[in-house]
Design brief:
The complex is a heterodimer of chains A (about 300) and B (about 270).
Chain A: H1 2-34, H2 36-46, H3 52-59, H4 70-83, H5 92-123, H6 125-140, H7 143-157, H8 159-163, H9 167-192, H10 197-205, H11 210-245, H12 254-263, H13 267-298
Chain B: H1 6-15, E1 20-31, E2 34-46, E3 51-55, H2 62-69, E4 77-82, H3 87-92, E5 96-99, H4 111-122, H5 126-139, H6 155-167, E6 173-177, H7 185-202, E7 205-210, H8 213-219, E8 222-227, E9 232-238, H9 253-271
Parallel strand pairs in B: 3-7, 3-8, 5-6, 6-7
Antiparallel strand pairs in B: 1-2, 1-4, 8-9
Helix pairs in contact in B: 4-5, 4-6, 5-6, 8-9
Classes of the chains: A mainly alpha (about 300), B alpha/beta (about 270).
Chain lengths: ~300, ~270
């Protein structure tokens, strides 16, 4: 059994590593043409002619490259994570915590709203006919256009002051929730409707109440659908939180870090923040996946 | 069709009023293609402890009749009584257990907790639930599988668990809608034998829908032959077979004679 499991893991890791190696190779190769103008300009000013290997080496070690090489990004990332104390504004961990706070609050709020709306759609006929089209329309509005308005409204109403948190956290949370409620809504509607007619007939033969059919059948039947949509929702909430950091004049958070770095011509910092965000997304999705496995085990899922 | 066969009238004297009494039951479904006459003028009386099989081709109304008894469908005309009540009142009184073609076990519950499900819904206390689950699982010979999940059991075992689930509460009527239809011949033979023994031991009244002639003849005290368009009863056969029935009885001349009569009835229904 352990040997089989290990074999299984090797089989799934090998393709991932292959794709990763291919991406790195293409990325390294791309730095040469992408940074060609910078490198050629420097060489012309210095009055030297470069061999191919010199050009390649310089393309991958510019301080402000158009496209940094992977190892430069890794270095900046390492510096941002390990070289600064967590309380420092130059620490990526500090900014990641700020972003994750809003992501998590938005995710929880979005998931609750999504579940509540799904219950409404499944149990109330009027909502069944009215809510879904509006939910779909809500997702067609570009969030980048909507985000500044949400920020403005949150500041104007001062909800945060009344709740005792920063207004900025409120607007980021709302934007994250706006993006993450939708997958939960769709998944839960499908999940709550997953039991077939025979299952419902069977409950009828036992004269089960509406509450009992919900608690004993519909709710547990919806769990696999819920977790599939929670994984999408947590990633969407992270995107929402980052987008929420762009138009607010925020100085904290991975989104603010990316914006500031790009405005002040520090591509290495921008890329490092980007990869930090990707790493955070990965960790969040893994966490939801871990929760799902624990629930699956408790519910006797095969394997 | 004569409304009440002689044998049943004599049986009432001993066993009390009929468990199921249908007279002039009609059910018309309104569909997009016009009305469909699913049941036409069905008259039938089932006494306590009877094992009645319904056999006929698809669309003959055998499942529909069973669903009417269970109050899952409502007849559009005629009278139907279950335990002397309307089917709806009988359903609310939890007068019957229903077994579908698919076992329909919840994958997230163990076998024991699946069997306990109707008991939970009906509000039995935990100690009594455990006691009843143990008893019915032993009855269907699944005693050792209480803590397994459904996917760990074969199809036949899952169907036995679903029968145990229908037996767990005290309904004296068992409605079975092609419960062994999806199982292979060998498993089906074995489950037929077990179901027959279970019926003898528990004295339940069983209504059993099937496509299979040998199954109907082997199990039943009465066989109701139905035919489609409109769905109606074309023959009711009282089985002369003894209550004690080893599987070998299927090679006896009496068995073959009844099977022949059922086959003739089905063929007659087709020609029309």
């Amino acid at each position: 059994m352990p040997r089989a499991a290990r074999g299984c893991r090797m089989r799934s890791v090998l393709p991932v590593l292959t794709v990763l190696a291919a991406i790195l190779a293409v990325w390294y190769a791309a730095t040469i043409p992408m940074n060609a103008r910078l490198v050629d300009g420097q060489a012309a000013r210095a009055g030297v002619t470069l061999t191919f290997s010199e050009r390649a080496a310089r393309s991958m070690s510019l301080t402000r490259p158009v496209l940094p090489a992977p190892h430069q990004v890794a270095q900046a990332l390492w510096q941002g994570i390990a070289a600064e104390p967590v309380s420092s504004k130059r620490s990526l961990v500090y900014h990641a915590i700020v972003t994750v706070e809003a992501t998590f609050a938005g995710f929880v709020l979005g998931a609750l709203v999504g579940i509540a709306l799904a219950l409404g759609i499944v149990y109330v006929r009027v909502l069944d006919l009215t809510v879904m089209p509006w939910a779909v329309i809500s997702q067609t509005i570009p969030i980048v256009a909507l985000a500044p308005m949400i920020v403005l409204l949150a500041n104007a109403t001062g909800i945060g002051d009344r709740l005792g948190v920063e207004n900025r956290l409120v607007s980021k949370t709302l934007i994250a929730a706006y993006l993450s409620f939708f997958p939960v809504l769709v998944g839960m509607v499908k999940g709550l409707r997953a039991p077939d007619a025979m299952q419902l007939d069977l409950l009828r033969t036992w004269n089960a109440s509406g509450w009992q059919s919900f608690a004993k059948l519909r709710l547990p039947a919806s769990v696999p659908y819920l977790f599939a949509s929670l994984k999408v929702a947590i990633a969407a909430a992270l995107v929402g939180a980052i987008v929420g950091e762009l138009p607010t004049g925020a100085v904290d958070g991975l989104g603010a870090r990316m914006l500031v770095a790009s405005q002040f011509g520090q591509p290495l910092l921008m890329w490092a923040a980007l990869f930090a965000a990707a790493g955070v997304a990965g960790v969040l999705i893994l966490a939801v996946g871990g929760l799902q496995r624990a629930v699956d085990r408790a519910m006797g899922v095969r394997g | 069709m004569a409304a009440i066969p002689e044998a049943s009238v004599q049986a009432w004297a001993a066993a009390g009023p009929p468990v199921i009494h249908a007279s002039g039951v009609n059910l018309v479904f309104e569909t997009a293609d016009g009305p469909v006459h699913a049941l036409k003028d069905v008259d039938l009386t089932v006494g306590r402890g009877d094992f009645v099989s319904f056999i006929g081709p698809s669309g003959c109304g055998k499942t529909t009749f069973l669903r009417c008894v269970a109050a899952l469908e409502t007849p559009t005309a005629g009278r139907l009584n279950v335990n002397g009540m309307t089917p709806e009142a009988a359903r609310q009184a939890r007068a019957y257990g229903y077994v579908f073609q698919a076992a329909g076990l919840y994958p997230w519950r163990t076998i024991a907790r699946n069997v306990a499900l109707p008991l939970e819904i009906m509000g039995y206390p935990a100690a009594e639930r455990a006691e009843r689950v143990r008893r019915v699982l032993d009855l269907v010979e699944l005693g050792g599988f209480a803590n397994k999940f459904p996917w760990q059991l074969s199809g036949g075992m899952q169907q036995r668990a679903s029968i145990a689930r229908a037996l767990a509460f005290d309904a004296d009527i068992l409605l079975m809608d092609e419960p062994f239809g999806a199982l292979d011949e060998i498993v089906r033979d074995r489950l037929n034998e077990e179901l027959h023994k279970l019926w003898q031991r528990t004295g339940k009244t069983i209504l059993f829908v099937t496509h299979a002639i040998p199954e109907a003849v082997y199990l039943s005290t009465r066989i109701v032959v139905m035919s489609p368009r409109p769905g109606r009863i074309t023959d009711v056969i009282d089985s002369p077979l003894p209550r004690e029935r080893p599987l070998e009885i299927r090679d006896s001349p009496e068995f073959i004679a009844i099977a022949h009569r059922v086959r003739e009835g089905l063929r007659a229904g087709y020609v029309e």
